[in-house]
Each structure stands twice: as structure tokens, then as C-alpha cells.
């Protein structure tokens, strides 16, 4: 028992050390290259905001000197009466900001896990990182653009089912949702290279005796396994 406990403790310390080193490495990368990572997403954010809320026009979206994602937009607002008739239309300019460093949370967690996860070969690690890239992009696109649209809806005092959903989603994201989604992406990426589906076994049934070992390698006789 003592030897098993010692091995378990050694393995735990080894995994902890690997994950710590990976976290330091990934955090260092984003400390220096984080603004480039954020800027690469800005065109996608602009596109996604217009898809979520077609009545807005993104004039500019950029990273300012305080390392915040800032946007200047115009919202085409239609004022209607109780009969849903349009009384007035106007363009309303809006400006908003978001701390860009919040975008670092997901990739730091994901790539810390993928680089520090034990038991992965170099080839499997590279494959898992490749799988994680589109998943990470998807997570970022359901994070920042929805946050911006929610801010816009709140500033315009809109009341709709979509606004209520956006309220819930922003609350979820800001209260552990980013970390949760990052863990999901990391686990899916690892599972994609670790879970192997069983291969179909082809064999000539006529050449197998009923008392021979089953070719599926179950350890049973053929007559009590696949030969039933």
C-alpha cells in the first residue's frame, strides 16, 4: 500500500509540475502576443455582431491604448406604436469597450491542458491542438459579440426574448462560463485523439473451427462468441 501511495504521489507531483510549466509558457506567450491574438478576431466579431443584430452598422472595432476592445457603431432604430406601425426611424451612434485580456482566459486554459496532459505522444498533442483551434474560435464568437450586442440592447432599453437570452448568456459567461467552455474544448480535443473506435475484423468463417479461439480476441471460443 505504501508503495502504491508513493507512486500515486509521485505521479500527482509530476502532472502538477507539467501543468504548471505549461501554464507559465502559455501565459508568457499571451503576455507578449495577446494583442495580436485579439486583433485577429476583430473582423470576425464585426461580422458576428451584424449577424446577431442586423440593424447595427459597425463603423470601427479596434484595440485601444488601454488594451480594450472598443467599438463605434450606428444602430438603425425603428420606433413603433402599439399596432406595430413605424412612427419614426433614426440612426443612433453608440460606443462601447471590453477588457481584451478576458479573451486570454479560454486559450490559456485550453493550451495549458493540452501541453501538460500526461500520456499524449507528440503526434497526439499536435493533433489535439489542431482540433482545438476551430472549437476555440467558436467559443470566442459566442462570447464577445454577444456581450457587445447585449450592451447595445441595454443602452437602447430594448425588451425582447433575444435580449433576455443575451442577459442570461452574458451572466453565464462572466461567472465561470469561459472557464467551463475552455475545459469542454480541451477535453473534446484530447478525446478526439485518445478514443479509438474498434476496427472491423474481417475473416473467413469457413476456416474457423467452432472450438477455435474467436478472431475478435475476446478470449472465448468461436462457438460461444461471434459464431453463435
Notes on the protein architecture:
This protein is of the alpha+beta class and 228 residues long. It has 5 helices and 3 strands. It has helices at 2-52, 105-116, 122-141, 144-155, 161-194, and strands at 56-63, 68-80, 86-99. Strands 1-2-3 form a 3-stranded antiparallel β-sheet, with helices on one face. Helix 1 crosses helix 4 and helix 2 (105-116) packs parallel to helix 5 (161-194). It is elongated. The two termini are 44 Å apart.
In terms of topology, how is this protein built?
Elements: H1 2-52, E1 56-63, E2 68-80, E3 86-99, H2 105-116, H3 122-141, H4 144-155, H5 161-194
Antiparallel strand pairs: 1-2, 2-3
Helix pairs in contact: 1-2, 1-4, 2-3, 2-5, 3-5, 4-5
CA-CA gap between termini: 44 Å
Order of strands, main sheet, comes to 1-2-3
Number of helices: 5
- Give me the Rg, rounded: 27 Å
- Give a count of the beta strands, DSSP E runs of length 2 or more: 3
Mean pLDDT, nearest integer? 87
User: Class by helix and strand content?
Assistant: alpha+beta
Give the fraction of residues assigned to helices. 55-70%
- Specify the overall morphology: elongated
Largest sheet: 3 strands, antiparallel
Name the poorly predicted regions: none
Amino acid at each position: 500500500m505504501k508503495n502504491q501511495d508513493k507512486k500515486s504521489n509521485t505521479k500527482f507531483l509530476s502532472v502538477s509540475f507539467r501543468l504548471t510549466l505549461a501554464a507559465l509558457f502559455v501565459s508568457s506567450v499571451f503576455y507578449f502576443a495577446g494583442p495580436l491574438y485579439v486583433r485577429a478576431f476583430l473582423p470576425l466579431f464585426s461580422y458576428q455582431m451584424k449577424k446577431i443584430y442586423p440593424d447595427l452598422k459597425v463603423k470601427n472595432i479596434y484595440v485601444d491604448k488601454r488594451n480594450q476592445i472598443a467599438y463605434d457603431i450606428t444602430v438603425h432604430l425603428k420606433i413603433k406604436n402599439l399596432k406595430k406601425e413605424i412612427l419614426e426611424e433614426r440612426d443612433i451612434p453608440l460606443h462601447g469597450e471590453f477588457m481584451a485580456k478576458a479573451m486570454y482566459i479560454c486559450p490559456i486554459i485550453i493550451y495549458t491542458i493540452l501541453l501538460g496532459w500526461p500520456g499524449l505522444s507528440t503526434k497526439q498533442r499536435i493533433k489535439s491542438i489542431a482540433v482545438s483551434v476551430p472549437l476555440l474560435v467558436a467559443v470566442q464568437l459566442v462570447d464577445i459579440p454577444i456581450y457587445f450586442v447585449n450592451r447595445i440592447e441595454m443602452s437602447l432599453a430594448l425588451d425582447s426574448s433575444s435580449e433576455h437570452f443575451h442577459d442570461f448568456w452574458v451572466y453565464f459567461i462572466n461567472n465561470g462560463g469561459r472557464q467551463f467552455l475552455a475545459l469542454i474544448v480541451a477535453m473534446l480535443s484530447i478525446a478526439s485523439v485518445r478514443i479509438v473506435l474498434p476496427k472491423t475484423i474481417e475473416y473467413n468463417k469457413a476456416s474457423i473451427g467452432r472450438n477455435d479461439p474467436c478472431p475478435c480476441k475476446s478470449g472465448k471460443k468461436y462457438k460461444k462468441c461471434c459464431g453463435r
